[in-house]
Amino acid sequence: MPSGVPRSLRRCVGDADRFLREAWQCSAHLHRRRGDDDFADLLSFDDVDRILATMSPRPPAFRLVRAGNTLPRASYTRSGTLGGQRLTDLPDIGRVLKLFDEGATIVLQGLHRYWEPVTRFCRELEAFLTQPVQANAYLTPPVATGLNVHHDIHDVFAMQTFGRKHWVTYAPVVDDPVASQRWDPSLGDPGEPVLDVELAPGDCLYVPRGMLHAARTVDTASLHLTLGIRSVTWHDLFTQVVTDAADEVRFRQALPAGYATDPAGFAGTVSARLKELATWIEERDGGKLAARLADRFWASRPPVLDGQLRQLLDLDALDQDSRVSRRDGAVAHLDVRDGRAHLQLGDRRLTLPAELEPVIGRLLSAQGLRVGDLTELDEDSRVVLVRRLIREGLLVAGGE
User: Fold this and answer.
1) Do 104 and 152 sit in the same domain of this protein?
2) Each residue of 53-73: pLDDT tens digit?
3) How far apart are CA 260 and CA 266, in angstroms?
4) What is the distance between the alpha carbons of residues 273 and 275, in angstroms, rounded to a whole number?
5) pLDDT of 261-298, one tens digit each?
6) 1 in a structural domain
7) Less crowded by CB within 10 Å, the N or C end of the chain?
8) What is d(CA 389, CA 124) in angstroms, rounded to the nearest whole number?
9) Which residues lie below 8 Å from residue 378, measured CB to CB, with a gap of 6+?
10) What residue ranges in the chain does DSSP mark as E strands?
11) Are 66 and 104 in contact (CB under 8 A)?
12) Are 136 and 197 in contact (CB under 8 A)?
């Protein structure tokens, strides 16, 4: 199990060790509110009001659904100009609010990309799980249903922030579905409920991938934040391995002429090639595959660069007495190979002299470290290195 359970996961599930051992990816888990923690610090009802009224989100950043159906964009958007360019999908807030009043659920999508409290929460959670985390919000009026019974192809944390919502879960009809196995009512009847609960502010319901579920309001409006854990699966890994087979000329060769006219006769050749592929797969280096998957995950986690404009403007003032700290949420992995230090900083990689490894190691754990305390380097080199790492979003200057 990963070490250092973050507060974000504890807020969602309570006892994280027990959750990871007993519920993660296998069963629903309900965590009731503890104390004053109602999740409103992440996204409140007033926040949604402000986003809609002043930020002019455009589809697909938001959409409207009612009784299981997505409403056409034309029913709540309008045309207009911005910077001399004609736009056809500007939000018509008056129509959005009218449809909400008539029973439509307002869905804010991709909040992890632009709403800072949610961005930081998701980053902390995904850095622990090493699975990508996305965030949507659902504002539903009283006595309404947004989406009917369905399953998701990702795990879900439903975090109630305002009002109440009634949730029902059912056993999966497809275990651990992937992208090609999205929900369709023809997959089967949901059967009897497994869990039937009402969520109040501060409650969190975990629904694993594939578990059928539906939610509705009764006598109050409801706002909940949904975190989607878009897990990398063994299927993804095996798909990559088979894709790598294209590097082998023998696996790029065309099928024999006329193969489709005699499938039975062709079957023996297929079996022989499958055995060749199996042997080739067995020879793959598991360590290299694991490292490549890890690199791909970390490389897709760009730094959260709030305040970076000020950091850049103040770079010239950096001196030996300046104090620097590692930026909250900054992803960084350091390894030394082939005589060089390789520093992975989210979506960018720096290659530096290997002798900088101990200095960078100190900076990775820096909290108020003086530039002048980097005594392994001369004064000019200290400033050059720290400025570079500030530019790259790893460090921030300031503080006591």
Assistant:
1) yes
2) 999 999 999 999 999 899 999
3) 8
4) 5
5) 999 999 999 999 999 999 999 999 999 999 899 989 99
6) no
7) C
8) 21
9) none
10) 29-31, 62-66, 69-70, 77-82, 85-91, 105-108, 133-140, 155-163, 165-170, 193-199, 204-207, 212-216, 222-229, 323-326, 333-337, 340-345, 348-353, 369-370, 395-397
11) yes
12) no
Could you tell me the pTM of the whole model? 0.92
Domain ranges, residue 129: 7-229
Per residue in 17-67, pLDDT tens?
A: 999 999 999 999 999 998 888 999 999 999 999 999 999 999 999 999 999
Residue 379 dihedral angles phi and psi, to the nearest 5°: -60, -45
SS3 68: coil
Q: What is the CA radius of gyration of the chain?
A: 26
286 neighbors 294 (Cβ within 8 angstroms) = no
The secondary structure of residue 147, as a DSSP letter, is: S
Q: Does 292 reside within a domain?
A: no
Residue 23 lies in a domain: yes
Residues 205 and 247 in one domain: no
Dist CA 200 CA 223 (whole Å): 10
Q: pLDDT tens across 108-153, in order?
A: 999 999 999 999 999 999 999 999 999 999 999 999 998 899 999 9
Q: Do 152 and 12 belong to one domain?
A: yes
Token couple for 27: 């069963």
198, 229, 260 — which closes off a domain?
229
Q: Are 220 and 276 members of one domain?
A: no
Query: In this structure, are 329 and 250 located in the same domain?
Result: no
Token pair listed for 265:
């006769």
**Residue 327, in any domain of the structure:** yes
**With b meaning 16 or more CB within 10 Å and e meaning fewer, what string describes 37-55?**
ebbbebbbbebbeebbeee
Please say whether the dihedral angle defined by the alpha carbons of residues 100, 212, 228 and 197, taken in this order, is positive or negative: positive
